[in-house]
């Protein structure tokens, strides 16, 4: 779009310097004045034959017309204004575009471009601390979507590890996980004083993986944590070079752990049988392999497209509607910020991940059809509680694929028009007219949103705390023993 506008402005610049009117130049090159006007305003891409004809009539080289440089200072301002008015930050304001007509002075254009530059700076500043991570996470999500969330190399690594652990069928036992760790040179130890900024700590010098206490109720997450720590060694990871590398490694070890807990061959066999019976259900998949609901739903995103030809979407959201994580390859449109990130964005109140919280009985999966601007989707949603608050896990497919899932017979259906503000974001005008001047709510502030990540060797990890922990528990560099 910017390239077309630059071309159009260069044509206009040379036309006016040669004192040709729009009608005169159009007649010379054999096109209508309206068509030429569209070209000059960057609204239409001219054919190469027209570009050559324009160059001949204006007595300039074709390369001069196609140059990426604006012909004048004013043209540069017009291009900058056009680019700024097409940004997500400006679109979110709902303001009309300003057309840089002849009556608009250069000084006014400079002021407008300056205001847009400051707006862009403030938007960037608002997400400055996590911006690099958010952009890297967005690219990583797009990369996984291109692969249908399936990583064959990690799948094979998991199958090899399972052979060393003696896995045969059913749920992976803690004993098998310990045998996998032993094969790769590690001993699993449970401690109650892990550094606050860590989930696990691996002592490479002494071959130890420190985990939270084994007395945690259920202990389902402990297998996953141990497997993730082992995954770094299995997948050949080195110290991350930045956020992008850190996030990629985090994704790979999580994938590795899931592929061990729900082995590909056994999982595909289970899902294939369920599809044949038209009885696919996250809860059955979860219970068959003894994992959390979220792990089961995520594992289905790995396998259903690659092995059963079903396109899907998954999301985890808080009871306030904030989106924590998500994946889709079925066209489900998640809300995004100006960087393309979905984390922290608010989902529609009509989506099942929010409607599920209005039910009295939350012990079973909730099923719903949702009509959206991008199509109708069916989904299964399960709510839960965590230390950070209530959350919902929602797994769904396009309407045409619902026939393979349990719960497809539900009559519950909602209509979502988001991102249209009138869907669920704009308050009732009568209420807003009164309460906007007569209320002062105090927002809940999540401390981790404002606090910068400790800047250590690994993003988010306090090095001094970790190294002191390792000294307490083993023979560290100083030679002190526990």
> For the report, how would you describe the main beta sheet?
6 strands, mixed
Distance between the termini: 65 Å
Q: What's the β-strand tally? A: 9
- Beta-strand residue percentage: 5-15%
Neighbour order of strands in the largest sheet: 5-4-8-7-6-9
Radius of gyration: 29 Å
Count helical runs: 21
Name the average pLDDT: 86
| CATH class bucket of the domain at 132-261 and 436-482 | Mainly Alpha
Q: What class, by secondary structure content?
A: alpha+beta
Unreliable runs, pLDDT <50, ≥5 residues?
445-455
Tell me the layout of helices and strands:
Layout: H1 2-17, H2 22-29, H3 33-40, H4 48-58, H5 62-65, H6 73-85, H7 88-91, H8 106-126, H9 131-146, H10 152-165, H11 174-183, E1 187-190, E2 201-203, E3 208-211, H12 220-234, H13 243-261, H14 264-276, H15 282-289, H16 293-308, E4 313-318, E5 323-328, H17 352-355, E6 366-372, E7 375-386, E8 389-398, E9 413-415, H18 421-424, H19 429-435, H20 447-450, H21 463-473
Parallel strand pairs: 1-3, 6-9
Antiparallel strand pairs: 2-3, 4-5, 4-8, 6-7, 7-8
Helix pairs in contact: 1-6, 2-3, 6-8, 9-13, 10-11, 10-13, 11-12, 12-13, 14-16, 15-16
Can you offer a commentary on this structure?
This protein is α+β, with helices and mostly antiparallel strands and 482 residues long. A 6-stranded mixed beta sheet has the order 5-4-8-7-6-9. Among the domains are: 118 residues, lambda repressor-like DNA-binding domains (434 Repressor (Amino-terminal Domain), Orthogonal Bundle), CATH 1.10.260; 177 residues, Arc Repressor Mutant, subunit A, CATH 1.10.10. The longest helix is centred in the first third of the chain and has 21 residues.
């Amino acid at each position: 779009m910017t390239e077309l506008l630059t071309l159009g402005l260069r044509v206009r610049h040379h036309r006016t310097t040669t004192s040709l009117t729009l009608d005169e130049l159009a007649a010379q090159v054999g096109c209508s004045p309206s068509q030429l006007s569209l070209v000059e305003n960057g609204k239409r891409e001219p054919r190469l034959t027209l570009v050559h004809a324009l160059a001949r009539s204006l007595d300039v080289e074709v390369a001069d017309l196609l140059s990426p440089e604006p012909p004048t200072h004013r043209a540069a301002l017009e291009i900058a204004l056009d680019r700024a008015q097409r940004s997500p930050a400006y679109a979110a304001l709902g303001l009309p575009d300003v057309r840089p007509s002849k009556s608009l002075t250069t000084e006014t254009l400079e002021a407008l471009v300056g205001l847009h530059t400051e707006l862009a700076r403030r938007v960037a500043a608002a997400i400055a601390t996590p911006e690099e991570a958010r952009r890297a996470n967005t690219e990583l999500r797009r990369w996984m979507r291109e692969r249908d969330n399936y990583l064959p190399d990690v799948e094979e690594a998991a199958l090899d590890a399972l052979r060393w652990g003696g896995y045969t069928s059913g749920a992976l036992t803690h004993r098998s996980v310990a045998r996998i760790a032993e094969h790769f040179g590690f001993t699993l130890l449970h401690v109650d004083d892990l550094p606050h900024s860590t989930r696990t700590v691996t002592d490479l010098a002494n071959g130890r993986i420190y985990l939270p206490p084994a007395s945690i109720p259920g202990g389902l997450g402990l297998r996953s944590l141990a497997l993730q720590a082992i995954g770094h060694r299995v997948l050949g990871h080195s110290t991350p070079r930045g956020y992008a590398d850190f996030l990629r490694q985090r994704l790979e070890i999580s994938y590795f752990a899931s592929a061990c807990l729900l082995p590909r061959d056994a999982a595909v066999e289970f899902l294939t049988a369920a599809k044949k019976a038209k009885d696919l259900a996250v809860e059955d998949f979860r219970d068959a392999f003894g994992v959390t609901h979220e792990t089961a739903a995520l594992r289905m995103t790995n396998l259903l497209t690659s092995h059963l030809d079903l396109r899907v979407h998954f999301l985890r959201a808080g009871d306030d509607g904030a989106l924590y994580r998500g994946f889709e390859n079925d066209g489900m449109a998640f809300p995004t910020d100006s960087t393309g990130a979905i984390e922290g964005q608010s989902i529609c109140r009509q989506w099942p991940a929010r409607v599920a919280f209005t039910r009295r009985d939350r012990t079973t999966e909730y099923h719903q059809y949702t009509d959206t601007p991008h199509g109708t989707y069916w989904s299964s949603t399960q709510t839960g509680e965590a230390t950070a608050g209530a959350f919902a896990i929602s797994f769904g497919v396009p309407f045409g694929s619902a026939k393979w899932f349990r719960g497809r017979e539900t009559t519950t259906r909602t209509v979502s028009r988001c991102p249209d503000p009138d869907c669920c974001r704009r308050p009732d005008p009568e209420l807003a007219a009164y309460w906007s001047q007569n209320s002062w709510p105090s927002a809940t502030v999540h401390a981790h949103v404002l606090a910068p990540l400790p800047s250590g060797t690994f993003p988010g990890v306090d090095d001094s705390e970790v190294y002191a922990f390792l000294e307490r528990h083993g023979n560290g560099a100083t030679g002190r023993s526990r």
